[in-house]
From TrEMBL:
Its main location: nucleus. One of its GO terms (cellular component) is nucleus. Residues 92-152 form the Homeobox domain. The keyword Transcription applies. The gene is HAT5_0. Transcription factor. This is Homeobox-leucine zipper protein.
Length: 336
DNA sequence: TTGTGTTTTATTGCCTCC
DNA sequence: GGAGGCAATAAAACACAA
């Protein structure tokens, strides 16, 4: 009754006619297509879930091959046991089906996998005996289980990385907003100075600023300068603390000046929520930049101090934007 | 009932290790 | 060269909506 080319591919105990099949002796494409399986309905009667003593057959698909020169096969034995030759054909037909492991078997295998996801040969044989499966089935189950575990791990890692990215993106956006707030503050303070300048009339330029061709707008458009100006605000306020700015505040400070607010908003980089792309701006200041900044700050402080004196007058083209001279700017970007 | 998507079992071919 | 692992894949079994 055994089909030619069928080979029992493993197992030990009652049905192990030929020993465990060498993996490299597996029936390949031609013979595997003609390989057969044992019907669950019939082997199921031989398999006792939880049986821990001997291999009684499989409730899952089993491949068969030629055994003992084809003169005796598992099915020969099975036929004798059943003594119903006409039913064997039905078994054979049903044997093409793939069978799933029972819940108990899966549970047992899961527990074993939890203890160790690698399978040593001894453990494989032991599990096969205990579950009534072929050692090869145990190996396959562990192999597939490792693949599923690996997939889950990759999903977890991906999720963790995405969370990390989202947090970084959030931090970046917060910093961006903070930067814009500081920039707006600088513009407000600049307005204060403009107002004061108009009140006091024209002032003269410090020497290093006299040859500047940069327009006030261009000078303050420099992003680095603007960010740095946020630090200026404290100094400016200190210098101006003796001055009554209350009127200026009501007129200028809280005004939604289109000129400046537009500048702020137009340069704000808005990132869509769905976008995972952000590009950090080049905001690091070089040593030269730092020196220029300090120099400018010193100059500005002096300028402001002098502005307190009615005898000292400056022109409108420098104080309002802290007078970065063109040759000292060194920043090649005005908008971003 | 049937079509469709997902899960599970098993095969195949290649690779590495001893 | 054999044994075992892994990725890719096939195919049966299963779940479920229409």
């Amino acid at each position: 009754m055994m089909a030619p080319g069928m080979l029992y591919s493993g197992g030990s105990g009652a049905f192990n006619f030929n020993g465990v099949l060498n993996q490299k002796q597996r029936v390949m494409s031609s013979s595997s297509s003609s390989s057969s399986t044992i019907a669950k309905e019939h082997l199921g009667s031989l398999f006792v879930p939880g049986c821990s003593s001997s291999y009684l057959g499989s409730s899952s698909m089993v491949s068969f091959g030629r055994v003992n020169g084809g003169k005796r096969s598992f099915f020969d034995s099975f036929d004798q046991e059943e003594n119903e030759a006409d039913e064997v054909g039905e078994y054979y037909h049903q044997a093409e089906k793939k069978r799933r492991l029972t819940d108990n078997q899966v549970q047992f295998l899961e527990k074993s996998f939890g203890e160790e996801n690698k399978l040593e040969p001894e453990r494989k044989v032991q599990l096969a005996k205990e579950l009534g499966l072929q050692p090869r089935q145990i190996a396959i189950w562990f192999q597939n289980r490792r693949a599923r575990w690996k997939t889950k791990q990759l999903e977890k890692e991906f999720e963790a990385l995405r969370n990390q990215y989202d947090n970084l993106k959030s931090d970046y956006n917060n910093l961006l907003k903070e930067k814009e707030n500081l920039r707006a503050e600088v513009f407000q303070l600049t307005d204060k100075l403009l107002l004061k300048e108009r009140k006091n009339g024209q002032l003269s330029l410090p020497d290093f600023q006299k040859h500047s061709d940069a327009s006030p707008k261009e000078t303050m458009a420099d992003p680095i300068s603007r960010v740095k100006m946020s630090n200026v605000s404290a100094r400016v306020l200190t210098l101006q603390q003796q001055e009554d700015l209350s009127s200026a505040k009501s007129d200028v400070l809280d005004s939604e000046s289109p000129h400046y607010t537009d500048g702020v908003h137009s340069s704000f980089i808005e990132q869509g929520d769905s976008s995972y792309v952000f590009e950090p701006e080049p905001s690091n200041l070089s040593q030269d930049d730092e020196e220029k900044f300090d120099k400018t700050m010193l100059s500005t402080a002096n300028l402001l101090a002098k502005a307190e004196d009615d005898d000292y007058r400056v022109t409108s083209s420098n104080v309002s934007y802290f007078g970065f001279p063109v040759e000292d700017q060194g920043f090649g970007f005005w908008s971003y």
